[in-house]
Specification:
There is one protein chain. The longest helix has about 35 residues. This protein starts with 18 loop residues before the first helix and ends with a helix. It is built from nine helices and three strands. With about 240 residues, the chain is mainly alpha-helical. A three-stranded antiparallel sheet has the order 1-2-3. The protein has two domains: about 140 residues, Ribonuclease III domain (Ribonuclease iii, N-terminal Endonuclease Domain, Chain A); about 70 residues, Double Stranded RNA Binding Domain (2-Layer Sandwich).
């Protein structure tokens, strides 16, 4: 009878580059955790990837909330929440992933790679959360904190002005151009009932719609509004 090969045996031929642990500022005692965090489900059945993504999201939220709390000791809860939300958006995660060139380390299927998976910002955001989860599992909260504080401190410093709610900003943009109010619709709802992920679409007449994801409909609407607003502003700059 043939022996069963471990899930990640095929990947042992392609060990994780030592460059990534150096960027993460952590030596993995269990490098298989990092392998799992970098192996997209399109390659192999890998439930650990989504589990680490789930964990990394919570670890990131805790540490960023503490960073914001300490950086703005006199601001009320509402202002802190707006700063926090801007820092944990998937676009911010994707930006960090791009900064450390995370895409080059991902193990994705040929089909996913052929569709630009290594540059897919949504995929990069998910992988960044998974890596944070791996850091936490291997080195505890301090290992995750070192990476997050190094990568997110410059982003926090950029927040000279209080970030405006994306939905309000998009509404003001539309009203300033005599357009109807933005229209939102639910595209999909995925995941288990206790941990759903919503995908919403926002549209304005005369402009292609934009999508956003979140663990509530409101969060997904905000992500969609931010994506459309960024596109509109970039178009105007061009």
């Amino acid at each position: 009878m043939a022996l069963r090969r471990p899930l990640f045996a095929a990947f042992r031929l392609y060990p994780v580059s030592l460059a990534l642990p150096a960027v993460l500022d952590h030596h993995f005692a269990r490098p298989e955790l990092l392998e799992q965090a970098l192996t997209h489900p399109s390659v192999a059945a890998n439930p650990a990837y989504e589990r680490m993504e789930f964990l990394g999201d919570r670890v990131l939220s805790l540490i960023v909330a503490e960073m914001v709390y300490r950086a703005y000791p006199t601001e009320p809860e509402g202002s802190l929440a707006r700063r926090f939300n801007a820092l944990v958006r998937w676009e911010t995660l994707a930006r960090v992933a791009e900064t450390i060139d995370l895409g080059q380390y991902l193990r994705i299927s040929r089909g996913e790679a052929g569709q630009g998976g290594r540059g897919n910002r949504s995929l990069l955001a998910d992988a960044c959360e998974a890596v944070i989860g791996a850091l936490f599992l291997d080195g505890g909260i301090e290992a995750a904190r070192r990476f997050i504080e190094r990568q997110w401190s410059p982003l926090l410093a950029e927040q000279v002005d209080l970030p405006q709610d994306a939905k309000s900003s998009l509404q003001e943009w539309a009203q300033g151009r005599s357009l109807p109010l933005p229209s939102y619709r639910l595209i999909a709802s995925q995941g288990p009932a206790h941990e759903p992920v919503f995908e919403m679409e926002v549209s304005l007449p005369g402009h292609p719609p934009a999508q956003g994801r979140g663990r509530s409909r409101q969060a997904a609407e905000s992500e969609a509004a931010a994506a459309l607003l960024e596109r509109l502003r970039n178009k105007n700059r061009g």
